[in-house]
Amino acid sequence: MANFLSSFLPLLFLLFISSDFPKSFSSYQTVKTFIFRVDSESKPSIFPTHYHWYTSEFAEPTRILHVYDTVFHGFSAVVTETHAASLSNHPSVLAVFEDRRRELHTTRSPQFLGLRNQHGLWSDSDYGSDVIIGVFDTGIWPERRSFSDTNLGPIPARWKGVCQTGAKFVAKNCNRKLIGARFFSKGHEAAAGLGGPIAGINETIEFMSPRDADGHGTHTASTAAGRHSFRASMEGYAAGIAKGVAPKARLAVYKVCWKNSGCFDSDILAAFDGAVNDGVDVISISIGGGDGISSPYYLDPIAIGAYGAVSRGVFVSSSAGNDGPNLMSVTNLAPWLVTVGAGTIDRNFPADVILGDARRLNGVSLYSGEQLKGKMYPLVYPGKSGVLSASLCMENSLDPSVVKGKIVICDRGSSPRVAKGLVVQKAGGVGMILANGVSNGEGLVGDAHILPACALGSDEGDAVKSYVSSSANPTATIDFKGTVIGIKPAPVVASFTGRGPNGLNPEILKPDLIAPGVNILAAWTDAVGPTGLDSDQRKTEFNILSGTSMACPHVSGAAALLKSAHPDWSPAAIRSAMMTTASITDNKNQPMIDEATGKQSTPYDFGAGHLNLDRAMDPGLIYDITNNDYENFLCAIGYNPKLVQVVTRSPAVCPMKKPLPENLNYPSIAALFSTTSRGPTSKTFIRTVTNVGQANAVYVAKIEAPKGVRVTVKPVELVFTPAVKKRSFFVTITADSKHLVVDDSGAVFGSLSWTDGNKHVVRSPIVVTQLDPL
């Protein structure tokens, strides 16, 4: 007893001096949700569990939201800023960060990826059978045919997850296809309870369960792993056979995002913890920062949670964000994350605006209601008055006396595209022309508008506005042309997709690759219509959406197929197979173009290229990365052992000689040169490849040097035998900053390919960038 007291009294004293909040918080104290990263090995032995330790020493039980013990050690709690600051000085607390709100990055595509029914990766992987994909999103509408378990075998024995019940979601909503479902709301509810802009969960339009009230989660889940072989369309558009990328893969849904409210880091971390414990093989997360700022990895719960998953063999696919075409707009930058941008497919939904002077302006639309039938209507541009809100067709900005009975031109931006149509309709308008600005360029996506509407690119938008200004009685109509297949060129890099360079560590090229993300048909919720507007009462089994949110689950499904075909491959090996076999040409066999500019795109736009699963099945060589490699990378970028442990969970020992971040064994190479360097400067990179093809093979280097740059490789030939499966090589890049002719992004681009002279071409992009010294 005396020994117990001698160990416990100091703890009581610590509690007394560190607990600076009373049982009920004073009104003048700022209370927020914080996430605490704790050194789990520091738990005093008197506590039976970490939860007992946390509730005794750090926060009251009623204040703790989540306890994390798998991908992350620690907890989230609602405390005062003062208390959080006090705990940050506790010797067992490695890091403290405020809970942050995230945003969603919102079917011919499998064929467009090179998948075929009779041979190739679909058949070789048995369509992804028994691989489990965890989808972090807005939940699922389980009754959809895309989630049928007909002819599927038993649930994999390794599965340890649950089917969490709740509002309009019962245990039988899960089956052999949808094998698990959970929802995470504590972080969201805590934020709503603290006041501010976050509203509580409105249970009249949302479900306190895994059921999807938004549609986004149902769409991404069915894109990754929807069943196949039944007819599908959205109001007649994109008619064809519905199928996900991995039709036989099992789904586990983790609802972390809530209708109109976003997603909170504390809930996302809890989902990572749950998914890895449950036994998923792949995690698909179409979520990113809503503020355009990329946090350091040790302050980024998505990066930390993803590392915990990847270090246990779980592949994590993430979206690159929709803030393109601006440079350095790519998000989800951690090198263990696979970062996916968006491209177009060879299907489009054209619509023409026909002006009173007989000109036809080409646009797109998914409007499926009553047609205008060639009737000409008066055309008006509210922005002509100079009032910004009117030009954007914001709520209550339009004068009915001006727009009634007319087609209205609305500028894109500041509010959802479909919401502008509702504003026009309420004001009495009969149709809408949605005009891109310079920032959107010529990038167009189709929308299921509630009134006749057509989206136009920036040039055509300027033309229609000029027509209104120059004509005494401007008129127009809209001609909807349905679905057109075989569009060329395709793929094209979507204008909205997040672009490089990597804003945290430009030595790592991001995005990694692109996948179909424009006008993607997939399953939809019954809770809202295809526009997502509360007033849209239409019901549709499928919807067509665009965004890197749609591209990400294509790669998640692809990872499931590759994991099924190659169960021993690591997440890095799967990514390498995708990147080194990606396509950089379109269906006209020309270099892919950028939708925003109409010019040739670059690795800052598409990473290694467009996903090509027909080749990824058999890549020949792969660039593998171990957990120790990632730890060395964190040491290389200047993290001390404590910061490394925040990410990796384990105490880190950085090498005596500081490693170079560019020597992470990544399937791409990015060389940074200072603009102030005098004369030619050289940098040497080391890479190691593993032979996963024929045991006896010889690969020869093929170099496409960036313009004005010298690239050498040693050795130029790699010989593999049954006994020698790994080979290392050095790449030396020499550039003279004074004479380097870079593009608008400050870079020049090339590639290194290893070819066996047969079918394998293992390609890595090379990026040479000029940087001003800090």
Automatic annotation (TrEMBL):
It comes from the Eukaryota. GO terms for molecular function: serine-type endopeptidase activity. Residues 377-463 form the PA domain. The keyword Cell division does not apply. Residues 663-768 form the Subtilisin-like protease fibronectin type-III domain. Belongs to the peptidase S8 family. This is Subtilisin-like serine protease 2. It comes from Theobroma cacao.
